[in-house]
Amino acid sequence: MAFILAQPAEAFTSLFKKVAMLHFIGVHRKIFGWRKRASYSFMRCEQYENGLFEHKVLGPVRSIEEHSQVGNVDLEEIDFDLSISGKTEEWADCLWQDYGLNQKVVIAIAPGAIRRHKQWPIENFITVARELRDEISNIFIIIIGTAQDHELGNEICKELGTSSCLNLAGDLHLTQSAALLGRCRMLVANDGGAVHLATAVGCCCVVIANEIEYPGSIEPWFSKEGAVRYHPPCAPCYSFLFCPTGEMLCVRGITPEQVLDKCRTFGLAER
User: What domain range includes position 185?
Assistant: First the structure.
């Protein structure tokens, strides 16, 4: 047998290619995961209004549910079992001790994005970081991301000062990022890998969510309420490589005040 762990509304042509490939290599029966109740290929608005578009996490879940021995999966049981080595945990402990973070409110910021049209302006991140610093006396901000984001981190740290900000963008491997985020109170970031890594280790996320896809599709699984959105007339565009209008309205329309409000009412709220 074979399972296609497809997206919840993956295009028919994509699923057809996968089924054809499985047939080609000799799998002729018991192929699960190709029966989708929705498709991004047509009538997206009508399908969304009828609740047919689900979160991306649920695509593989629906695929395995097709097998009679699995049946319906309890969504409360969904977890992301990340294994972080003891050595990496020790590294994170040392980082916290070296910077005296055990008595601090540690907030991570990931200002970068893999695509330009997903990236909130850096000046907005600076505004949010500055306001949080002024509101929380014992705050400490850590910048994470790729090496390409290091200069963005420098801009934030230049504004806040090195006594309350540390730029680690480009300096961490994946498990170090996971261990670090597992100790942070909150992550503020663009839609990208950092928010999904954070939610997997229990870090609350406030995410600047673009409108490339409909709401409910891409929010961090355990921080769905932390998404901040702006819905321009051109949304959703389903353009994953560039902004069709060139104006990036769906991210530029989100204000620092909206993100700060979400930080106060969701990210920093007691749980």
Answer: 86-267
Rounded to 5 degrees, φ, ψ at 204 are: -65, 140
Are 105 and 197 within one domain? yes
Rounded distance between C-alpha atoms, residue 16 and residue 193, angstroms: 28
Which of 22, 49, 77 is the last residue before a domain boundary? 77
Can you tell me the distance from the alpha carbon of 60 to that of 50, in angstroms, rounded to the nearest whole number?
A: 21
- Say if residues 115 and 247 touch (Cβ distance below 8 Å): no
Residues 153 and 90: their CA atoms lie apart, in Å, by 25
**Nearest 5°: CA angle at 213, between 229 and 79?**
85
Q: What is the pLDDT of residue 158?
A: 95
> For the chain, how many residues are written?
271
Q: What percent of the chain stands above pLDDT 70?
A: 100
Encoding tokens for residue 39?
A: 């498709």
The pTM score is 0.91
Residue pLDDT, tens place only, 136-165: 999 999 999 999 999 999 999 999 998 999
